[in-house]
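Pair request: fold both.
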Amino acid sequence: MNMEIAALCEVAAWPGADRRTRIVLAGQFTAAGLDREGFEFFSPLSAKTPDDALLLALAGAFQSRLEGQAEEAIAKLDAATSMDLGLPHYFRGISLADLPGCAGRAETVVADLEFVLMVKDQFPAGFMRPVHAALARAYDLLGRTGPAERARERAGHLITPHWGNPEDGFRFGPRRLVEFAQGVYAAQGYDFSDVGFVVTGEGVVAVDAASTPEHAAAALRELREVTDLPVTHVILTHAHADHVGGVGAFAADGATVIAQANFAGELARQNSGPPPLGYYLPRDGEDRRLDLTPDRLVRDRETLTIGGVEFTLIPIPGGETDDGLIIHLPGPGVVFTGDMSMPYLGAPTLAEGSAQGLFEAMRTVMELRPRQLVHGHTALTENYTIEAFPGLLAALRELERLVAAGIADGLTLVEILRLNHLPDVLKEHPAAVMPYLVTRDNFIQRLHRQRTGYWHRRGEGVERFAPAELAAAMDLLGGGSAAAFGAAGLELARRGEQALALHLVDLGLLSHPGAPELAGLRRRLLDSLVAQNQMLNPFKFMHYAALAGLELAPAD
């Protein structure tokens, strides 16, 4: 069982664990093909808390996939739907649809999932993809050809709201304009990053500008349903391409562009770095070197009043970059944080970000006592809430001490990661659990890279071998047979170790490039890794989606 699932099992069993943690764990079990393990986790937990409809539904859902246990599983699912509305009906409908002939209950599938569609605003957008897939199967059985075809057009197996393609880039969710306070908005789903808008008495202040002028203009068109006032200012939270590439769409109105004093240095660092992973930027923006000189630089905390609205601009060292700039609107109690809480502590392909910078930035934000945080990405806004900050900060401080001690004791990076550390303080802060788990491994890797050299005393890094060399050595062990790589890859996948299996299969394909069994296994492993990372690691999600050539339509 992989570390993420092991950690989720521990926190999902804590008293007071939130529903989202348990749903994410269920998704991880499913993506890894660990149905029996999922049943063996949720069944005893449900028995301890028999009044929890979600736990009963999850136990039934996993049991329904085990040979010869459908009848008992359906009884659990039926009991769960009698206890609560919503998620139990979702899991019963999906589970019945996966059984042969919908277990003779196609009408129940339709009733459950048409109800879910009626209340879909209560579910994450991506949850509707498997709903449509299940409905298509049930409609077919009932002879409802038209509805079945329409459902198939919207169907999918992923439950994330993520969508995108190589041409347009990656998006975290559907296009929408969210109002966080009167006159304070974020356009989500128009780009990898979100675009903030503050409507003042004189005009609109934009916070960041997406990755391309086209995406920024599309976000602005959404705001035009609210106001026709011109964009007078653009405040940039940092110099990453997905936040500044579309400035031209706003500068056309003569807007004043404001950034932190270290903006030029961060922009130069990014321009000199490697191409981005996956397809988080649109294809026409991947190779672009940005050239942007702000009109005004902020070196110290300052306050602006624009159209009767007070803006406090606060430079921060940041958890992601050293040119971070947060924007506090004291009136409505909103803080635009940019990417200070990005769980990778900087882009994973660049040498930037720091733990101490993150801690200082979090303390600065907490001292403002805001009502609402608006991050630079939808998923961060939804999960890294101000309520999560106290517990998250305490947990990460403890993790920093653990990593420092591990380095001093001579532990390798992998050994520190394998500690799978979960601070006890998280038991008192359920809102901080998922942000911590999303951040933890990236935090450890960033600290370890910044505090160690490229040689380890046990020999790691002393010698480097190309993939082709490793493939040749593995081929010797496997007797020169592609089947040996395939058999080992299948066994690793059965154990829930899809990432390790993919690495092995890729080595096998270097030695046996024409082996169809390895190519087919590779595709199945990529599909599984896309699903495993859909809720916890968007950069890995994009990486594996790009390797698989996967294109996702917006969730409906």
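--- second member of the pair ---
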Amino acid sequence: MAKLNKSGIVLITIVASLGGLLFGYDTAVISGAVGALENYFIGALETDKDLAIAAIFQFKVIISICVIALVILFSSFLLKFFSKSKAYLIIGLFVLIGGAVYYFQFLSLPGVLTENLKNSILGFMVSSALVGCIIGASLGDNVANSIGRRNGLLIAAMLFVLSAIGSAYPDTMNIFFGDSLSAFIVYRIIGGMGVGLASMLAPLYIAEMAPPKIRGKLVSFYQLAIVSGMMVVYFVNYFIVQGQTESWINTSGWRYMFLSEGIPATIFFLALLLVPKTPRFQVMKGNEKDALKVLTNLNGPDRAPGVLEEIKKSFGKKKAHWLYFGGTVVVIGLLLSIFQQFVGINVVLYYAPEIFRGMGMETDASILQTIIVGAINMIFTVVAISTVDKFGRKKLMMIGSAVMAISMIGLGFALYLETTGITALMFMLFYIAAFAMSWGPVVWVLLSEIFPNSIKGVMAVAVAVQWLANLLVSWTFPMMNNNSDLVAMFNNGFPYWIYGIMAILSGLFIWKFVPETKEKTLEEMENIWISK
């Protein structure tokens, strides 16, 4: 491939990867603000009983709306996997049993701010964007096939801008029924919808533009963009709080953290106007001339017609039932998403400053340590990008699982034995390095590769499940970490042991069930599942 063509592909990849940068920015911006948000919102509830009663009622309403939305979305997925009668039976049983548990264990609780409820509100406030991520990712397939990958990313960019302003000023931008805490949660959910759309569409856009030999490297750029966004916001947060009083951070500083996201979101929107729609989407819509033009620009005039014929052939097949290739590929995709989150990565990324503060560091120092975490994340993501097409996907994933398991179990024991400081920091950095060179970027590569074109919509389910797993982990962490009984027994070590066990299971899963996809075309991947 000519150098000019490769440069064009890389340029398009960088623009699409800005969606990943905003994904990283949006998910990590909260890390520097957790303490201030707890003080500003939760602290007010502790001192005002009437405000607490109203906030608890609104919290229950928001959670109920979110639960209903998620049940509808996942019900629509079940209808694509099973026959209507079987799907409705599963949905009915889930609603009946789940509804009863939800009512008696949550809705019927009195409006009293207990320790567990306070931790639950804090956990959901921090992780509320993930509800939007699930919704955005779930809609990703419909958006991709109706208005296209690029136009879907333009919508994501607009959602990012709206969320940035609304999250910064939930009191003055409160157009909803409820207090500013509820408005903040709603705006975070809106931003999450942008993240969810981007997480589905950006890797898909890149994978459809990239030649097979460098596809793994280019899709991994998406993960590099995610960690770059995290790194950028860690610096932004640090410069916002540097030299400022705790009082100023708690009242104004956190607002600037969220507002700053509007800048990269606007750049992303404008840059997207300069890139083409993918050839696969053009073929899907019958625009073969436009598809050939893009392919010629990227692959050269000699290769373009052949690539076009391959795409036409793959889309000549009807969209298959989602279980057409059996349940194996679907289960593998879902478990890749679940394990990527159950190893606990976003606990470290969302709560890093709070974890470091728990080790006795000041606000400035804890956010500075977070920058170190971000730097390690970025460096080892670059390692993954340079090795994913050379060593393959499986080898990197198994090495990553082993190091993550040792690191998380070690971190748990460091906290349990109260030998924090440099020991705990080193375990955390080893963990971040291992994730960054394996499960971080490689899962996105695998998700963009393993699903045949005729069931590509399953990727939306896998990404939605990933965000659901992220929500469960992020929401439950404060409940485990701040629970006075667990702290008395384990000195905050308990949650990290859970994540360490998950890392062990993730390695066994990769070793036993996940096929190697290195250098295979998207069309060749179909043959792997047909032969199984």
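Observation on the second member. The chain has a mean pLDDT of 84.
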